[in-house]
Known about the structure:
The complex is a heterodimer.
Chain A: H1 14-19, H2 21-36, H3 43-56, H4 60-74, H5 78-86, H6 95-109, H7 116-124, H8 129-151, H9 160-173
Helix pairs in contact in A: 3-4, 3-6, 3-8, 4-9, 6-7, 6-8
Chain B: H1 12-19, H2 21-36, H3 43-56, H4 60-74, H5 79-85, H6 95-109, H7 116-124, H8 129-151, H9 160-172
Amino acid sequence: MAHIELPEGLPGIRGPMAFRPETAKPLNELAEVLMRSENSLTRGERELIGTYVSYLNDCFFCQNAHGGLAQHYLQCDMKFIDGVKFNMIDADISAKLKALLSIAASVQEGGKQVTLTQISTAKNLGATDIEIHDTVLIAAAFCMFNRYVDGLGTWAPEDRQFYINRAKSRAEEGYANYDPRH
Amino acid sequence: MAHIAVPEGVPGIRSLVLFRPDTGKHLYDLVQILLRDPSPLTTAERELISAHVSARNNCAFCRDSHAAAARELYGEQRELVDGVMNDVLDISISNKMKALLTIAGKVQQSGKSVSEENINEARKHGATDRDIHDTVLIAATFSMFNRYVDGLASFTPTDPKTYEEMGKRMSTIGYILPQPPKK
C-alpha cells in the first residue's frame, strides 16, 4: 500500500500525478521536451538512458515502463534491454552511447562523480554539448522520478509483459498532455 | 569550468537554463509551484527541506542559495536554519518538521529507504497526505537539481554575500526563468 491515499489502481507515477496534477504538469512537460522533442539523440536512446538510471536506482516501475518504451522505439526485445542494464560495456550499442550511459551512471551516484575523462571521452566520440547536457539532465530527472515513485511507496504491476504491452499506446500518447487516470 | 559551453560567470542552475531554456522553463515552473504555490507547508519550511537535501548531496550552490532563502523567510527564527544545516535539530523546530526532514533525508538516499515507521512518526505529529507528498517530491526534485548543477560542473560562487542576495531574490520574487543578458 502506498504511504499516502492515492487514487486506486493507477500504476507507479500515475497515482501521485493524479493526486497532485499541479506539479504533474511541469513534470510531464519536462519529460516531453527531454525525452521526445527533436534531438540528435533518438527517442530510443533517451529512453534507454532513463531505463538504465532507473535500473541503477532499483525502481521497478520506471525501469520497466521506460524499458518498454525503449524496446518499442529501438524495435528490440527485452533481452537486449536487460543486456544494456546488466552489462552495458558489452552491449551492441554505439561507443558514443556507452560513453553517455557511463556519464548517466556517474550522475546517478552523485553529480560530482562525473569526471573530465568521461566528458572528453564522450566528446571525442562525437557527443555534442547539447547531448551531454541532455544526458546529465535525463539522468538527474530519473533520480527524481524514481524517488517520487518509490518514496511514496506506489504500486507497480509485477508482470514485466504489462509494460511491453502498453508501450506502443504510451509512445503514441506522449508525456505532455497525458491523463494519469488512463 | 563547466563541462559544456554555458554562459560564463553565470552561477549554477541559472547558467544551465540559459544554455537550454526549453527544459529550463519547465524546471522553473516546477520549483515555483512546489516551493511557492499554496501548500500546508510554509515557504520557509519548503526552502529548508530543499537546503537540507542539497546539503546531504553536498551541492554547495543549491545548499547555500536555498539556505539563504530559508533564512529570509524564517525572519527572526533564521538561526534554526543553521541548526538544521549543521545537523543539530534545533528545539524550535516542530516535531512534525523533524519527522518530515527525516523523510526527506531518506528520499535523498533512495525512495525505497522511506519506511512505514518514518511515515507513522510524521502522522503522529499531524502530517497530512499533502505534507508527506510535498516533502517527498521536494526531496526528489532537489536530488535532480543537485545532480544537474554538479553533474555539469556549473559555476559555484564562494562569497557568502552572493548567496545572501540570491536568498533575498528567491524569497521575494520567487522562481522566474532567467533571461539572456542584453548585448
